[in-house]
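Two quick folds needed for the group meeting slides. Do the first one here.
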Amino acid sequence: MTARIAWLRGLCLLAPVTFAGCSSGKILPDGEIEPPISVDGIRHNPEQYIGDRVRLAAQVAESHGLRIFTVKDDDPVLKEQMLVVTRRPIAVLLGDEKTTLQAGDQILISGVIRPGDVADVEAELGVDLDTKLENRFRGKPILVASELVLTDERVSDTPDTLTPR
């Protein structure tokens, strides 16, 4: 088993335990990884994470092509989102798991938090965001992802009508 597969399996095992109440998510200099952070954690203290490699546990909000998507936090009140741009196509990062992301997918992302300079990220990674998306996330932290792991197949936004209440 390669080190990468072992690492990914370890993330999958940790993900269900660490979704709630996580506050850090930084990848430390010695290679150890703290529990995943949330979109809220980054959005409320972006200066604490800019330039750092982190793990983010979140739910996919929208897919915008082969290398761009947004994630949302599980907070029902704030409904904050973050832009994620991948270094390689999503299908390559997901491997055999899945070829695309859809709204509701639970995901664990490793990457570097960048300041909200959308033009710099576009130029560096060779992507082109549409104007509406660019304006929506200008000045907000952007996660440049290098690894993706699906942690759950999907979370539905519709209520479960089959379960008695």
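Then this one, please, same format:
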Amino acid sequence: MSGEHRELAGGRWNELTLSEQMGNIGSEVDRTLRWREKGNRESSLRALDRTLELLNLTLACPSNKGRLKEIARVREVFLDFILGENEYQSSGDSLSRYFLAFATAARLRR
């Protein structure tokens, strides 16, 4: 893991709601996808690393115990799309829409 999100890893991540966490993950997912589309492998891999770091923090968050299956599955689907054979037949658009729903929900709650 890159350790890009040291402040969040220090406990601040656990203060966010699941919607806020997933919305932030979605930003990194979108960065990964955009760099990939532009053919910039190095930047795409850095964004992928940050995405995985946030997903792992979300899986470790005590308040998400009831949602671990969903969080782990979205991690699996994302990795399958980016690095695997795309067995789930995902698209960049479907991944972006999934995370956008969380970002929208988080904003509505403010």
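Slide caption for protein two: The chain has a mean pLDDT of 94.
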